[in-house]
Amino acid sequence: MAIEVRIPTILRTYTDGERAVEGKGSTVTELIDQLELDHEGIKERLIEDGEARRFVNIYVNDEDIRFTGGLDTAVADGDTVVILPAVAGGAR
Fold first, then answer.
1. What is the C-alpha to C-alpha distance for residues 11 and 34, in angstroms, rounded to an integer?
2. pLDDT of residue 59
3. Rounded CA gap, 73 and 61, in Å?
4. Tens of pLDDT along the chain (92 residues)?
5. Alpha helices (H) in the chain, listed in sequence order
6. Distance (Å, rounded) from C-alpha 41 to C-alpha 89?
7. Do 19 and 8 contact (CB within 8 A), yes or no?
8. What confidence score (pLDDT) does residue 5 get?
9. Which among 84, 44, 87 is positioned nearest to 66, based on CA atoms?
10. pLDDT of 90
11. Is 8 exposed, middle or buried (0-12, 13-18, 19+ CB in 10 A)?
């Protein structure tokens, strides 16, 4: 069993259009490093200065990593990681 990583539409160009990919690692950092090896360029879109980008939300089993240890949050086989870019704007 692996970790399921759900990819938002805007980042699917890095995953050949795949909505979800398999991930590996024991922390979110290791998972993102593995994603970068498998899908070159994706890490730059997720990480800036050693932290998750300000407008990128990452959830492990529906828990926001900002409240569970950040990039050091543990992940394990069977977990689901959701990458969700924040969206702002709209009409007045």
1. 16
2. 98
3. 11
4. 699 999 999 999 999 999 999 999 999 999 999 999 999 999 999 999 999 999 999 999 999 999 999 999 999 999 999 999 987 766 66
5. 28-38, 42-46
6. 26
7. no
8. 98
9. 84
10. 63
11. middle
Q: How far apart are CA 41 and CA 19, in angstroms?
A: 17
- Which residue type is seen at 76? A
What is the CATH T-level fold of the domain 3-85, as seen in this structure? Ubiquitin-like (UB roll) (3.10.20)
d(CA 7, CA 83): 6
- Give the residue among 48, 47, 41 at the shortest CA–CA distance from 83: 47
Contact in structure between 73 and 31 (CB atoms under 8 Å)? no
Domain parsing of the chain, residue ranges: 3-85
CA distance 74 to 55: 21
